[in-house]
């Protein structure tokens, strides 16, 4: 206890960017992963199309490592700032505290060097945490512990809460992708890379013959990782791509087993398992689902049987490009004045602070089709404690637009 206190204090006094030699210093750590609270919903959705952006993902991932190669920051596994002491390993005190209202508020400051588009990119990446989990990133007032999000040299982060102001480096040039920003923020929440899990050898084969000796520690397995009783997640935003740190062109260093064609290393944004894992680690009860196929459908719980009272669920529709188009096939909600009781509300973006596309809607008239202005749409379904009905069912597709959507997604 005494020792722990000292180390925490030491952590507070040390500047965030100190470099330390590689050591096995976050042993009992947390890795990723599947919907738990989420599965109470009978949502149906398609998995991402495997062919659509493999090239793009690979490009982006290699860019991160290339960017970080020139970084003066000493990094483990490509983008994690090593911990200073073994004591913080178990990371009980490394988690960010939860307020009595169940929200985990993480204060942050942004580098004044960011331009408007960068700020928007970072806010968009943060908004998904807020919509899908109980993590809220809030502008720092005077809090002691906070994230200092800076355009430093590369894309990197500390693992877990360190104490004081801790840097999350999101470099302007190379790191401005939603998935990359979320990846670094997840490190700060206390998550490691998915392929570092204790059970990874059942899911991927590490091809040591294509990994040069200095890069081998980047593929370390954490025998004591806290896997949260959730499955291994190939589609985690915390999973490396197949060619990470390969020293031979065209030879993969991480091969999914038994099916080597399974896609790994996406940077589109958090997966459903990433969300479930955050909600489990931080003890949040959230009903949220990501729908990231090129098309799919969603429906209220139990449909076509009646939905339950006192629920609040969101669906984040995130197609890879184009604009999200939503069509309701069925709609039957309790009618209240101003639809203050049960309602469906649709937002043009990934959070409840995004512009409203369809305001609170109830009753039994099927709403008109809705098209978002981008590849993101959030559907909210809230019910009160009085009276239920059969609910709704809808389908979505990505519709062609004049211009290709930006890389910021
Ligand atoms: C790490 O996990 C091992 C095995 O579960 C346990 O024996 C050890 O006490 C843990 N270490 C810390 C620092 O919590
Ligand atoms: C690649 O890594 C392997 C295994 O560490 C090593 O034997 C080999 O010489 C390396 N090849 C190159 C081109 O560096
Ligand atoms: C998680 O939440 C439940 C219910 O609110 C509470 O009983 C429990 O103590 C919480 N656990 C932790 C680790 O905060
Ligand atoms: C189901 O909803 C309908 C309204 O659509 C309502 O009349 C009926 O009472 C509900 N059934 C139950 C069991 O709540
Ligand atoms: Zn990382």
UniProtKB/TrEMBL annotation:
The protein's name in its UniProt record:
Metalloendopeptidase
Instruction: Spell out the molecular function terms from Gene Ontology.
Output: metalloendopeptidase activity; zinc ion binding
According to the UniProt record, where is the region Disordered?
Answer: 27-56
Q: Which residues form a coiled coil?
A: none
Indicate the enzyme's highest-level EC class: hydrolase
Biased region (Low complexity) positions are 30-51
Active site positions = 184
Q: How is the cofactor bound?
A: Binds 1 zinc ion per subunit.
Please classify the protein's predominant subcellular localization into one broad category.
membrane
Where does it localize? Cell membrane; Cytoplasmic vesicle, Secretory vesicle, Cortical granule
- Indicate the secretion signal residues: 1-19
Biological classification of the source? Eukaryota, Metazoa, Chordata, Craniata, Vertebrata
SMART domains cross-referenced by the UniProt entry: CUB (SM00042), ZnMc (SM00235)
Where would I find the CUB domain in this sequence? 287-399
Detail which positions bind Zn(2+).
Answer: 183, 187, 193
Tell me the disulfide pairings in this chain.
91-94
What organism, scientifically named, is this protein from?
A: Geospiza fortis
Q: Supply the InterPro entries for this chain.
A: CUB_dom, Hatching_enzyme_Uvs2-like, MetalloPept_cat_dom_sf, Peptidase_M12A, Peptidase_Metallo, Sperma_CUB_dom_sf, ZnMP_hatching_enz
Catalytic activity, EC: 3.4.24.-
Q: Name one GO cellular component term.
A: plasma membrane
List the keywords (alphabetical). Cell membrane, Cytoplasm, Cytoplasmic vesicle, Disulfide bond, Fertilization, Hydrolase, Membrane, Metal-binding, Metalloprotease, Protease, Signal, Zinc
Transmembrane segment boundaries: none
